[in-house]
Amino acid sequence: MLGALPTQMAIKPAFHAHNDYLHSRPLLDALDQGFDSVEADVFLVKNELLVGHFFWETKPERTLESLYLVPLSKLHKEGKLKNIWLMVDIKTKEAEPSAILLDQQLRRYPGLFSKVGEKDNAPVKVLLSGNMPREWVCSGKSNLLRLDGREADLGKAEQAGIFPWVSEPWSKHFSWKGKGPISESEKTKLKNMALKAESAKQQLRFWGAPDLPECWKFQAESGVQRISTDNLSGLAKQKFN
Question: Which domains does the chain have, with CATH numbers?
Answer without folding.
Answer: 14-236 (3.20.20.190)
